[in-house]
Amino acid sequence: MAGRLVVITGASRGIGAECARRFAAAGARVVLIARSTQALEVIAQQIRDRGGEAHAIRLDLRDRDAVEHAARALIAEHGPPAVVVSNAGHSIHRTLAQYADRGHDAERLFGVNALGPVALMRVLIPAMQRGGGGSVVAVSSVSAVVPAAGWSVYGASKAAADAWFAAVAQEIAPEVTVSLVRLPLVRTEMIAPTPAYARSAAMRPVDAAGLIARAIVTRRRTYGPWWLSPVAALLALWPTALDRLLASHESRTVRR
Ligand SMILES: NC(=O)c1ccc[n+]([C@@H]2O[C@H](COP(=O)([O-])OP(=O)(O)OC[C@H]3O[C@@H](n4cnc5c(N)ncnc54)[C@H](OP(=O)(O)O)[C@@H]3O)[C@@H](O)[C@H]2O)c1
What we know:
The protein contains 9 helices and 7 strands, in the order E-H-E-H-E-H-E-H-H-E-H-E-H-E-H-H. The protein has about 260 residues and is an alpha/beta fold.
């Protein structure tokens, strides 16, 4: 990591902020991207106070022109990244009935979780290739693989990004490798609005950052909790297997 340029989206809090601290402590030059200038500056300053190098870029990933412009400016100023952690994300828990007159929610989620990362990586990946290669970690969710009532748009937006990263991975290997890290529940601000998760088992953000770091080292194509592949296989054979289970979990979520 020492001296390497690592770009992390969604670095103003949660998993992205943990990644920023971890990689900077390992000697990386980190570029932190998110919308909240103030929160980004706090993280960047913490890193600088410990002798690290950190730069903050305020960017709304839903603004495609701004994303392309920021990506080009980043390369012009810092050079091509060695590592990109595409981590920024947003989730909304709503059933179809609750979405009925909220079309903008779908646009918001696809903008942050899928279209924004595609716009950013369309500029950064070619620069990484020209710069001699590197690795990309796409921070995804088990929701991209396991459908769950109430998470339709979130799951669909994560699955869309997964499919894009997985196909591009074939085009750019071996110079640039792509790892999809499909996380289970992680105790961050993202899950705070869902009361049912208050008492659920959840990873710590620091452990999620550890998984992301491992993906960079091993360059393995996919990471996920141990149960994800068996559940995905079960669903392929028996698509309704989880309906009852998820429906009962969903009704508990809505009741609380
Ligand atoms: N927490 C979980 O249980 C969980 C589970 C599976 C996967 N994940 C995935 O892990 C990743 C990180 O999530 P987290 O739990 O750390 O969430 P978080 O604490 O809510 O942090 C989300 C980050 O994304 C940034 N972001 C949100 N909208 C943005 C936008 N339009 N443009 C640029 N940046 C934006 C936020 O910064 P600003 O608000 O300052 O822009 C923040 O830095 C996400 O991709 C999420 O889908 C999380």
